[in-house]
Design goal:
Layout: H1 3-36, H2 38-47, H3 53-73, H4 77-98, H5 103-123, H6 130-134
């Protein structure tokens, strides 16, 4: 095996761990705010047309807070990355069409986060993950 493959393969897993760390903590922080103040989230979701708001609030909390924890530890990574992808696509849609924000002024963070979620869907969590140790592909 060439030396470049010996170095590159482990670094891929370290890179995926880094992506999972930042993506997981990002979603945990956003989900925690929703979990902490569910009533405000329900009210806001009902206001913008996501009814019943309580249902959609829990979808967001599960996806963001709990999904963030699972992605951080690399468990169910592809499932939760898929759910996060839907949340990011909806976030881009809302910011572009409802709020009419420009890329740099409002939805660039969703866009970059979307790239990370798609990466995890395609590649998976890597070898430094519970998915790997439990044989989940």
């Amino acid at each position: 095996m060439p030396i470049t493959q010996l170095i590159t393969a482990p670094m891929m897993d370290v890179g995926l761990l880094i992506v999972r760390f930042f993506l997981g903590t990002f979603f945990i922080a956003h989900g925690y705010n929703k979990l902490k103040d569910k009533e405000a989230m329900v009210k806001w979701l009902n206001l913008i047309g996501y009814k019943p708001g309580i249902f959609w609030a829990w979808v967001l909390i599960i996806t963001e807070f709990f999904g963030g924890l699972f992605v951080l530890f690399g468990l169910g990574t592809r499932l939760f990355a898929s759910m996060m992808t839907v949340v990011m696509v909806m976030g881009i849609y809302h910011r572009r069409t409802v709020k009419r924000l420009n890329f740099v002024e409002g939805w660039e963070l969703n866009y970059m986060t979307l790239a990370s979620t798609i990466l995890l869907i395609i590649v998976g969590a890597g070898m430094i993950s519970l998915d790997f140790y439990l044989g989940i592909t």
